[in-house]
Every structure is written in C-alpha cells, then in structure tokens.
Amino acid sequence: MRLSARNQLKGVVVDVVKGATTSHVRIDVGGTVVTASVTNEAVADLKLAKGRVATAVIKASDVLIAVEE
Amino acid sequence: MRLSARNQLKGVVVDVVKGATTSHVRIDVGGTVVTASVTNEAVADLKLAKGRVATAVIKASDVLIAVEE
Amino acid sequence: MRLSARNQLKGVVVDVVKGATTSHVRIDVGGTVVTASVTNEAVADLKLAKGRVATAVIKASDVLIAVEE
Amino acid sequence: MRLSARNQLKGVVVDVVKGATTSHVRIDVGGTVVTASVTNEAVADLKLAKGRVATAVIKASDVLIAVEE
Amino acid sequence: MRLSARNQLKGVVVDVVKGATTSHVRIDVGGTVVTASVTNEAVADLKLAKGRVATAVIKASDVLIAVEE
Amino acid sequence: MRLSARNQLKGVVVDVVKGATTSHVRIDVGGTVVTASVTNEAVADLKLAKGRVATAVIKASDVLIAVEE
C-alpha cells in the first residue's frame, strides 16, 4: 500500500499509554521520538506495543513551522 | 515561547516551492526530510528559505500509524 | 500495510483537478463522492487518475458531526 | 446552515463510546461506518445516541489517499 | 443545523484571496481576524465575499496552545 | 519564536478538564472562549491552569466556514 502523505517516518514503538478511549503511542524515529494520539481500537488492531516496528504518517497540511525571531 | 504540540522537530529548510496561495516547505531533520504545506504569507513572515533553521511542529492527534501486516 | 486511521473508504477516482501545488482528487465510494486535497507530488507518486482504485483515509479525530436542530 | 467542508456524509448513529473527555461516535453512512472522535460535551449538546440521524463532516485537507502498489 | 465543533466564531468576511484550487478567506470576529483555507468550490457554494456574515468553525483537537516561557 | 499558523489568539485560561490521556483547556480570547484538546503532558509542561496567559494557535487549513442559507 502507498500513501499520499508526504511524511512517513519509520521507527520503533517506545511505549503505549492507554486512556479511556485514546492512547498515546511514542515511536523512536532514528533518535527522535514522535508521539501519536490514536484510538484504543487502533492500538489493538495494529498490535502496537513496545518494540513493534511502526511508521508515523503525517500529512503536509498538518505540519506547522516555527522559527526563532 | 513554548507549545503544547508533542512533536517539534528542529532542522534546516531544504527548499520552498511557492504556489498561488500555498507553499510547500521541506525541512531536513537530522537526515529525514519533513514536508509542510503552509500559506505563502507564512513563508514571507517567517522568511523561510533554503538554509533557514526551522522547526516542524506537529500535534500528536495529527499523526497516524502504519505497520506492516 | 495497515493503518491506525479508523476510516478507510475504498472507491474509484472520479477526477483529479491540479492546482499550482495542491490537487483535489474525488473518489467515488459506493455512490458517495469523497474529495481529498493532496499535494501534486502525491498525485504523481500514486499515479492518481480517473478510474484508479483508491482508498480515502480519515482519522477519527478529523471528523466533525452535524445534526439537524 | 451550509458548510465549506467538501465531505458531508449523512447517516445514522450506530453507537457512542464515552471516555473521560473524548467520545467515539460511529455513524452508518449507507452501509459504511464512519468513526468520529468528539468531545463528551458535543455528545451531550447534539444528543448523539444510537438511532440519531447525523452527518459526518470532513474537510478535504484532512483526507489522505492510499493505493495498492 | 448544529455542529460538534467546540469553536464557532461568528463574524464578517473581510477578504477572499483565490488561488488555483485553494482560497484564503479572512473573517473578522469581533476585532480579531481569523484566516481559513478552503477550496475554491466552497467559496463559490457559500457565496463567500467581503461583507458576508460567516462563522469560523474549529475542532478542539485542531487547537494548539502556546505560552511565554 | 514565531509560527507559520495564521491564527494566534491570545487570552487567559478559564479552566482545564483532565481526562485519562487528553485534557480540554478553555481560553478566554477577548470575551470569546476557545476550547483546545491537548495531551495531559502538554498541560503539565506548559503549566496550564486557570488564570495563565495562553495563546490558541490554529492553522488556516483547520478552519471550516459555515454560513446561514
């Protein structure tokens, strides 16, 4: 499967914190940790857990830019 | 200034492609290139151009996860 | 590949309208047409064109709900 | 009221799962189920419950596209 | 029609800048100007133009927070 | 720090409601209350609490427009 999203950062799941309906999944992408907020159902479906290889997918229109003054 | 966004990836602008109202800015973040789609006004305001140090900012709720089957 | 996104609507591309940097791709999903705004690069990479089988992918946190009063 | 969002999929609420602050609402849109993640306040305000007619509203810029290789 | 989105800021359109596929619409909300990036089709459908009463609608999950150090 | 986001609405935090993983923060922006859904980690990091000066940051591509018929 291929995706239109311009940003696909492959890494390894570092940890998964489950909430009542929403989980936070942290993925180590070459030393940088990316946090994703996904549904608990997605965590179960994709078997997301520490050590799982996973890709953080981000649409270009969801990226803001910050600069120092 | 500090931001609530969990993902703040610092890097250097690689290129800026301007459209009629929307520009695509690519930022090299430690070897990984992140693409952001922002308004042309933002490009002007932040003086975004090749070589500019910039941070890609992404909310955790805007990150999807993909895994191999 | 499997995705965390709860909404994955499979259909057929109806048309692609290219802009300067951003394209609008319309996908017929069982009679309902879903419009996606993606980068021109994504249109080229995924060879999106009329008749191409494609899936509209939408995160649950990007869906609003409207009701009649 | 009319909305700028290109995607407005009318259906019927199938179920509502409440979390601590965030609920997941599933809407049957002509046989396809669309999941929305909304605040608990929205569930109360809109009286979202099984059987309620509701429309899933999605901005074109929030739709990704996936294709088979 | 009622919407799940927590943020609905009513105002008056100040200007509309059309691009190839995407327009930028600025709405004056009680002295604060809010900019929306929408499709050209939406501008036509909703007859968006200077002086038109319009509401900026924003999901709570799309709002970031910034604070001074 | 400067941000590409077109919408930066400065105000004062009115209240913070914590969930299991996600908090809802309401900010009074000159009489209008804006609700943001952020991670609990962000609430802790930014010391978000009633009375704290804070800015609601919203990308133009995340703003929908509604009009009366």
TrEMBL record, chains A, B, C, D, E, F:
Residue ranges occupied by any Mop domain in the UniProt entry: 2-67
Key word Ribonucleoprotein present: no
Gene3D superfamilies (alphabetical): 2.40.50.100
Pfam annotation, one family: TOBE
Domain of life the protein comes from: Bacteria
Keywords: Molybdenum
Keyword Repeat: no
NCBIfam families, per database record: Mop
Annotated protein name in UniProt: TOBE domain-containing protein
